[in-house]
């Protein structure tokens, strides 16, 4: 199977505000883009792994974690892992930043 | 050192090892084989894992360090396949050979799997260990329909867990009643009704004869020919002693591994304990008797004199899907028994005590099990009850008069507190006193009380509190930090903010050395609230420290859409506003338009990116239906139109709502205004309620119509509208200044006392000062919807979904 790696520009780095989540729709995928206080940018699937779901982009950001706004699960922005006592994992996407442009690598 | 080997790493076995280590920490070199890849965990709690209450780590009883600290060689994920009883060694499935001087078989039991066609299909499981739980959790994510075979305790727990995981659940039971080994007909049907209300579907008197499907299960077929669909089948028919290795190695096995009163098998130096053992023809499955066996075996192996194990009379204390149950001894009446029964259908309580020859021989309690320890003691000690009245036997019928503290004080020392671990009140009190214990955890560690099913913990806590007296309260009080990020309490945080002049959430967390730099969802909204309360006229709200609804100024719904509820003061609207709402609903294809409980109109299912334009089109202020603030002021029609109304309730309601809207409060605040005591606006269950009487208003406070249903208390009666506004302002401000964040007025009032609040508000100067601070605070608010419409920045940051077409 041929797999193409696509790199999609989604935002200007300088426009992103820290501790904020942005929702981005790429075709059928909805992605939450977060910039955290230390300046790093992360992209996750914009959906909590809680069985009843819910978006992540509106969650409270603390360090390199986001809290699911509906069920308060604590989720690592780095690897998408749900922190104890809950468990699960959110799909993460690779980010590349070049000259102020933020790319999501699919 | 003697070599002690144990096959099995479960609760009864490891408890035996714990008992041995207590007696003879140096006598044995210990090796344990466990088939599962985990340390000893609390199997009783598996249903909690399935139900999502706890995580696996929370149910580990002995962590791996415990094995290490006690020099125990543990082989997990490794089963013993053969015992060479002549050469005294065991052989594992990984080819490992270990010599023993003494061998304990503690292999527990296995789930019974029906020997019917299809039982080996994918999607069919037992409910016995972590692996089964994980499979169910996984399948619940992909599939919708589950069938549980077995309407006993295990089956019902599995079914409850699957409901929590979002599946539709059919429970298939062979017998006409649920849990027929513990419950009689009445209590079983009460349980069935309760569980049906929770969403379970029951198929009674159905015998499963085939599991349908190709590779994976698609359904069940019953003996009567009927069928159901199922994507997951859980067999919860009970357990069977796991005796294979014993049988293959020449140890005598009947139903279980047969042992004598010292837990010895027929082979010298080989013992069996727990669910795999059969003692006097009984195989026990509950934890209490197994721990008794463990104690006897430990003493015996260590060469101590010990009372032999003579079997146990078991009482079953259970909690099934939120319902407390207890049953012991005989369940069904016969011609020689007489019964005392209480059946309170209204409260869902049922109690039955069976009596033969003036002695209690059976107990069934449903819904209220407070009497269980006392009745069970009377049963086991065969007390003569001929002098007692039926009321005093079922004491807690009149339990209003008895409080917990007295209960604990009057309890005899030999009263069993923790049935699982056989811990009495005397033992707990003794260890609190001699070892200086101050917390529940310490008591559990030292005495084992509460370490298994955990149902006795409240009782242990009251014994702790009773034994320590005042000491306990102080200690408990000093431990309420606002969240796990700090050890500081609310009072300390507020004090520090004031004395150090801290002005932002970030600064508070920094200066007060939060152990989690950017806080969590508990502390950040709380700090933000406290800052806003302390600095009255400061407009430095940290929007990103608010949780989603307050941050977005709309309620997030479970599918990620939002609801919009515009302000409709006092529930009074106009044709013009109604038209606007109707037009917006049409223009934005709003899926649901509904009257809310607070007398206004909600638009539900709105897309995030549509929020600002909807607000613009509505051109109405936010109703704050999402906030920790004044929600609604519900009013009745009142004297303007109603023939009963003695006061103008609509006018007062509108004035109250206009004055106090947008004010940040520790939790939401709802008001109601009725023009007469008929109270059509339900002012008696509002945070603040006003009831018009001839010549004035009654002001009620602390009502709650939600989770903590509570009727309001009469705060005072006043004559004029001005007085109403003054008292309400002062009351609200006092609540704002003294309540914990997220504490509703009902809880706050109970904590702080109605009398105290009345005294504060009776003081004129105090009232004025409170109102001044409130008015100053109220000035800083602007309508958040209008603000969002005006600000491109807010729109971009909070309400945009950036749509990007790939491939362009």
From TrEMBL, chain A:
Residues 8-104 form the Rieske domain. The keyword Iron applies. Pfam families: Rieske_2 (PF13806). The keyword Transport does not apply. SUPFAM superfamilies: ISP domain (SSF50022). One of its GO terms (molecular function) is oxidoreductase activity, acting on paired donors, with incorporation or reduction of molecular oxygen. GO terms for biological process: nitrate assimilation. It comes from the Bacteria. Keywords: 2Fe-2S, Iron, Iron-sulfur, Metal-binding, Nitrate assimilation, Oxidoreductase. InterPro entries: Rieske-like_NirD, Rieske_2Fe-2S, Rieske_2Fe-2S_sf. This is Nitrite reductase small subunit NirD. The gene is nirD.
Automatic annotation (TrEMBL), chain B:
Pathway: Nitrogen metabolism; nitrate reduction (assimilation). It comes from the Bacteria. SUPFAM superfamilies: FAD/NAD(P)-binding domain, Nitrite and sulphite reductase 4Fe-4S domain-like, Nitrite/Sulfite reductase N-terminal domain-like. The keyword Iron applies. Residues 556-619 form the Nitrite/Sulfite reductase ferredoxin-like domain. Binds 1 [4Fe-4S] cluster per subunit. Binds 1 siroheme per subunit. Keywords: 2Fe-2S, 4Fe-4S, FAD, Flavoprotein, Heme, Iron, Iron-sulfur, Metal-binding, Nitrate assimilation, Oxidoreductase. [4Fe-4S] cluster binds at residues 636, 642, 676, 680. InterPro entries: BFD-like_2Fe2S-bd_dom, BFD-like_2Fe2S-bd_dom_sf, FAD/NAD-bd_sf, FAD/NAD-binding_dom, FAD/NAD-linked_Rdtase_dimer_sf, NasD-like, NiRdtase/SiRdtase_haem-b_fer, Nit/Sulf_reduc_fer-like_dom_sf. Residues 316-382 form the NADH-rubredoxin oxidoreductase C-terminal domain. Residues 627-767 form the Nitrite/sulphite reductase 4Fe-4S domain. Its cofactor is [4Fe-4S] cluster; [2Fe-2S] cluster; siroheme; FAD. Residues 3-279 form the FAD/NAD(P)-binding domain. Siroheme binds at residue 680. Belongs to the nitrite and sulfite reductase 4Fe-4S domain family. This is NAD(P)/FAD-dependent oxidoreductase. It comes from Neobacillus thermocopriae. The lineage of its organism: Bacteria, Bacillati, Bacillota, Bacilli, Bacillales.
